[in-house]
Design a protein that fits this description.
The structure holds two protein chains of two kinds.
Chain A (H helix, E strand, L loop, with lengths): L1 H16 L6 H22 L4 E6 L4 E5 L3 H20 L8 H20 L3 H10 L1 H11 L4 H30 L6 H6 L4 H18 L8 H8 L2 H23 L3 H4 L2 H24 L4 H21 L3 H32 L10 H4 L1 H15 L5 H16 L1 H26 L5 H4 L6 H19 L2 H18 L3
Antiparallel strand pairs in A: 1-2
Chain B lengths: L1 H22 L5 H24 L9 E9 L4 E7 L1 H24 L6 H20 L3 H19 L6 H32 L4 H7 L2 H18 L8 H4 L5 H10 L4 H8 L1 H5 L2 H22 L5 H21 L3 H28 L12 H4 L1 H15 L5 H16 L1 H25 L14 H16 L14 H22 L9 H5 L4 H76 L4 H25 L1
Antiparallel strand pairs in B: 1-2
Helix pairs in contact in B: 1-2, 1-4, 2-3, 2-4, 3-4, 3-10, 3-15, 3-20, 4-5, 5-6, 5-10, 6-8, 8-11, 8-13, 10-15, 11-15, 13-14, 13-19, 14-15, 14-18, 14-19, 15-17, 15-18, 15-20, 17-19, 17-20, 18-19, 19-21
Classes of the chains: A mainly alpha, B mainly alpha.
Chain lengths: ~475, ~625
């Protein structure tokens, strides 16, 4: 089943090459919808692991499996891809065929990242997701797209180099003739190697997340990317970093020694990201850039939860990764919807949009409240679990990060006021409200946000076994 | 039965709100009004029926768990019905219904009826959730929910920039306090593992009581507008007047008082925090009263008055008189709602005029509003026989028993209250008329005024079990002083004495609390910090990345030069050397037979010549 899930978008991409360009978007939508259904089916039935040799001489296997955490990530990926494709129907007008083919290719690569159990396989998927995104930004992006695309590519690629070095070091030092992740991570290592590998992995994932101070590729990439690119970047690709931390960095901690000092450093970096990202968001003049910086802050919460190293923090972090995908995905979709009408992202160009677009303003309000962590919406549940975990790890962490909750409301409310409220200028007074297609892109996320917010228990149940395994690995030695 | 009723009380307003917000634009105004009044009216009826049940909660209250919300934290969808939540439920649904009814007339000519009534219903739902919840987390959901409804309703007139600013200010000021609420929950969870009131309150270790109490106090100070958090409440008057009456006077702002009552055991275990509460209350009561002295906007007088009265409730909490605080909360809900609705009637009939300097002489044209307003004023001023007197007297007496200086703050506040309230009557209803013919009041607005006026008289005498009667002779002396203070306040206002005028500059600027908060928090920390970090981000952090790119490119350019000059130079030099060496040889290798023959002959000749010469020499 997992293999099928990986293959459907890939096959869809190959077939789309032979289809006429005017059908591309419908084909891509159909393929990604099928993939989404498949992933939901997997979520309901559970997934069985698949394993077969790939490069036997080196001990590289095609080995995929999915626990609850992976399954959740898979669903997040397929849903965000489907919505990203739907959101691009009107806005992408040139090189249409290539655009949708790249999105499907990207989907396949991202799905692979969340199921790969073999380091080489993981690395291949991890790298392969870079290329389509590079082209998406570079070909269909905004004015500074080339700068942003190259920055994104080089920055993340240099992280990947460290990842590769780490993997090779692990392979050579452990003496195991396999690239199987579980085996390599469990193999006894001398502390020095373990520490080097840990930091190499850390660099790769910290750039991907991104953690402060490695984050500056993000505002450029998010801002210049087309709507679909921003939605997928924020919704899914950033989580490849946090996912990597959870699966591959945390198990190395016990062997690396000085775990307490390392974790303190990472926790503090997370808190800096929370506060720093929020404060910088506050002063942005570009709507999309503001949302981009808010991601730095929100991902700070996700990493803080992870490095709390307890059940509440880690499960909150996993759930918050999904929540961030939902709320920030919504926020980027809304920026895209407005951009298609006005062709500007400067906040000062707007005001009073609630008059012409009342439905959109309601959806935006829900997205804002979800992002700001209002109870009974999804963001609160994740944030609460994370901060609770952080408090258990170190009460000061919670004290230092709650101002992020206040600032989060501040930059969003201020954005809302400047764009939606007040009297409408002439140019903004006659904009069309949400179309049927746009409703289709936003409603699933709104429904998802409310359902997680009101009844998060199934998600915690789904995440719990993976978190338990991670904690056991942490306390093994 | 109790389960169903409690669920109904919560779900009715929620259903009303959902209907309005999903489909409201397609529902005619009359139906909107009907639906939204009905939901709250039915919720009130259900509350009454619930409380008439034989021992609905028994002596100790009753918990009903409907379902799980956040697992493992005691954070369920569950209610706790006991005497304090029952009292608040009555106030919320009862006064809430009256204000819904009043709004039908008040908002008759405003667009967006569905939005307005939908938000009002939403508020009632969240407020009920806040008081009915059996755990801190669900109370927090209600707590943030009423903040949201308050934000939406303050900003109801979306075209007014001032409304948007006031809405943001209210939400964010509260959010600062809510951060403390969050931390209180984490502390409690770490100590006891549950957020259910019935479980964590007895379990919390005494050494943690002070921390939790301080955090909860901060949260309560935000919602209940105690200094220095009080700055948001006067600005919140940008919302429609019924909203001010319901949310910013009668119900939401009392949530802080309710929270402290709910968590009373924590505060009892931390006497030093209780002392802080009474100081906060005393300062707030007096400070807000002085500011109310000089306001000219009729709603702002009432707003500062609300802050001041909440201060009195905090004094009561601080001396551990939780029942007295709840009692004053109850009576205050009646007379303050009445005062706001009367003010709303005046504003409504003067086409939105709020400046009292442009009012006056309305008594003749407007006897109904005048007399109801006078009843409200006498009630809040503490004139014997009315509701405010009974509850305030209780607080003053219990405060005196703890500390006479607290009592002094209270009595000074009473004097000022009587003064500014009668000043309000004086400026709006008495004196000369400035207005030709105000609109008459519709019945929908008159009826709630009448009911609330009645409540302002009798609410103090209802058998709620909140009023102790251990009268001592000292209490009668104090009572006489309080009555004297109220009477002299009214008298001074009536003869328009300029009271405390040297300090007016302080009062008019609200003791500079707002300005200080703006300068330090908004402009300093948030905007200044954001601007600074934004520059840091572009200049230094991203600068480092770009610098690294530049460095790489420069190194690239250098190595290109090196490559072209030195490395490739060496290669080319080698090539050149080979070429140079081979050049003469190549010259020889012409491929022409004649030249080969020529060279061959020349060589032969040379060899011969050498041999001959050599031979000759030998």
């Amino acid at each position: 089943m997992i293999g099928l899930l990986l293959l459907v978008p890939l096959a869809g991409m190959l077939i789309s090459i032979f289809l006429p360009a005017r059908l591309s978007k419908y084909w891509a939508a159909a393929v990604s919808a099928a993939t989404a259904l498949l992933s939901v089916q997997l979520l309901r039935t559970g997934a069985t692991a698949e394993r077969m040799p790939w490069i036997p001489s080196l001990g590289v296997d095609y080995h995929v499996a999915a626990d609850g955490i992976s399954l959740l990530m898979l669903v997040l990926t397929t849903v965000m891809t489907l919505l990203a494709i739907l959101a691009s129907f009107e806005s992408v007008k040139d090189r249409v065929k290539e655009f949708y083919a790249l999105l499907l290719l990207l989907e396949s690569a991202m799905l692979g990242v969340f199921v790969a159990q073999d380091f080489v396989l993981f690395f291949v998927f991890f790298e392969f997701s870079l290329v389509p995104m590079y082209f998406l930004i570079g070909l269909w992006g905004g004015e500074r797209r080339l700068y942003a695309a190259i920055k994104f590519f080089l920055y993340t690629l240099s992280g990947s180099v460290f990842l590769l070095l780490g993997i090779i070091a692990l392979y050579l030092k452990s003496g195991a003739r396999t690239f199987d992740a579980a085996t390599l991570l469990a193999a006894p290592l001398d502390p020095v190697t373990a520490q080097w590998v840990f930091w190499a992995f850390f660099l790769a994932f910290a750039i991907k997340v991104p953690m402060f101070p490695l984050h500056t590729w993000l505002p450029d990439a998010h801002t210049e990317a087309p709507t679909a690119g921003s939605v997928i970047l924020a919704g899914v690709m950033l989580k490849m970093g946090t996912y990597g931390f959870l699966r591959f960095s945390l198990p190395l901690l016990p062997q690396a020694g000085h775990a307490r000092e390392i974790v303190t450093v990472l926790g503090v970096l997370s808190i800096i990201a929370i506060l720093y990202g929020a404060l910088v968001s506050l002063m942005q003049k570009d709507w999309k850039r503001l949302v981009a910086y808010s991601s730095v802050s929100h991902l700070g919460f996700c990493t803080l939860g992870l490095f709390s190293l307890n059940a509440s923090g880690i499960s909150g972090s996993v759930l918050q990764q999904v929540n961030h995908g939902i709320s920030t995905g919504l926020l980027f979709l809304i920026v895209g919807i407005v951009y298609e009408r006005r062709h500007t992202r400067v906040i000062a160009d707007f005001g009073g949009l609630a008059h012409a677009m009342p439905n959109m303003s309601v959806i935006f309000a829900i997205a804002m409240l979800s992002s700001a962590g209002l109870p009974l919406l999804n963001g609160f549940v994740g944030e609460f679990a994370i901060l609770n975990g952080a408090y258990q790890a170190n009460a000061l962490w919670a004290y230092w990060s709650v101002p992020g909750v206040v600032l989060g409301a501040a930059y969003l409310l201020w954005l809302y006021q400047r764009t939606m409220l007040g009297p409408a200028q002439e140019v903004n007074a006659r904009l069309q409200d949400l179309t049927v297609r746009e409703w289709l892109t936003v409603l699933p996320l709104v429904a998802w946000a409310i359902s997680i917010g009101v009844y998060p228990k199934p998600y915690f149940d789904l995440i719990a076994p993976g978190v338990k395994a991670a904690l056991e690995a942490l306390h093994r030695s | 039965m109790v389960e169903t009723l409690a669920a109904l009380i919560l779900l009715l307003p929620l259903a009303g709100a959902a209907t309005m917000l999903l489909a409201g634009r397609r529902i005619p105004r009359l139906l909107v009004q009907l639906i939204c009044c009905t939901t709250v009216g039915l919720a009130f009826a259900a509350t009454v029926v619930l409380l008439l049940q034989p021992a609905p909660g028994g002596e100790t209250g009753r918990e009903i768990i409907y379902g799980t919300w956040m697992p493992g934290l005691g954070a369920d969808f569950a209610v706790l019905i006991d005497s304090s939540s029952a009292l608040l439920m009555l106030v919320i649904t009862g006064i809430g219904f009256l204000i819904h009814f009043y709004s039908c007339g008040y908002m008759e000519h405003e667009a967006g009826a569905a939005r307005f009534f939908g938000y009002l219903n939403l508020f009632v739902f969240f407020m009920l959730l806040l008081v009915m919840s059996n755990n801190l987390a669900l109370t927090f959901a209600g707590w943030e929910g009423v903040g949201l409804s308050s934000y939406l309703l303050i900003g109801f007139y979306v075209d007014r920039p001032a409304a948007g600013n006031a809405a943001n200010k209210a939400f964010l000021t509260n959010r600062v306090a809510d951060a403390a609420y969050l931390l209180a929950m984490f502390t409690i969870l770490a100590q006891t593992g549950t957020l259910r009131y019935r479980e964590f309150l007895p379990q919390l270790a005494p050494e943690w009581a002070a921390t939790v109490a301080v955090l909860l106090l901060l949260a309560a100070m935000g919602k209940s507008a105690q200094y220095p958090f009080a700055i948001w409440l006067p600005d919140a008057m940008e919302g429609p007047t019924p909203v001010s009456a319901l949310i910013h006077a009668a119900t939401m702002v009392t949530a802080g008082v309710f929270l402290i009552v709910r968590c009373a055991p924590v505060f009892n275990a931390a006497p030093q925090v209780l002392a802080v509460i009474s100081v906060v209350g005393a300062v707030t009561a007096l400070l807000a009263a002085t500011i109310a002295l000089v306001q000219n906007d009729i709603k702002r007088v009432l707003a500062y008055s609300t802050v001041s009265q909440l201060g009195l409730m905090f004094i009561a909490l601080g001396v551990g008189a939780y029942d007295a605080a709840l009692f004053h909360l109850f009576t205050h809900a009646f007379f303050k709602a009445l005062l706001f609705l009367c003010a709303g009637a005046v504003i409504h009939s003067l086409d939105g005029e709020q400046d009292m300097r442009r009012m006056g002489g309305l008594k003749k044209q407007f006897p109904f509003a005048f007399w109801t307003m006078v009843i409200g004023t006498l009630a809040i001023a503490g004139v014997p026989g009315l509701a405010g007197f009974v509850s305030k007297d209780q607080i003053l007496w219990l405060a005196f028993k703890t500390s006479p200086s607290l009592w002094a703050f209270g009595i000074a506040t009473s004097l000022l209250t009587a003064f500014y309230m009668w000043r309000l009557i004086n400026m709006t209803f008495l004196g000369e008329s400035h207005h030709a013919e105000p609109h008459s009041l519709p019945l929908t607005m008159r009826a709630p005024l009448a009911v609330l006026a009645l409540g302002s008289v009798v609410a103090g005498w209802l058998p709620l079990g909140l009023h102790q009667a251990d009268h001592q002779s000292m209490e009668y002396v104090l009572m006489a002083v309080a009555i004297g203070a109220a009477a002299s306040g009214i008298a001074m206002a009536h003869f328009r004495w300029r009271f405390l005028s040297p300090f007016y500059f302080l009062f008019e600027r609200g003791w500079y609390v707002d300005q200080a908060a703006q300068a330090i928090l908004v402009r300093g920390a948030a905007q200044g910090g954001g601007e600074l970090l934004g520059r840091l981000d572009r200049g230094i952090i991203d600068g480092a990345v770009n610098g690294f790119a530049l460095l790489t490119r420069s190194v690239g350019r250098l190595s290109r030069m090196f490559d072209a000059g030195v490395v490739d130079g060496l290669v080319r030099l080698t090539a050149f050397l080979v070429k140079a060496v081979s050049y003469p040889v190549r010259l020889l290798q012409t491929g022409s037979l004649q030249s080969y023959a020529l060279v061959f002959l020349a060589g032969l000749a040379a060899v011969l010549a050498w041999a001959l010469a050599g031979g000759a020499s030998r």
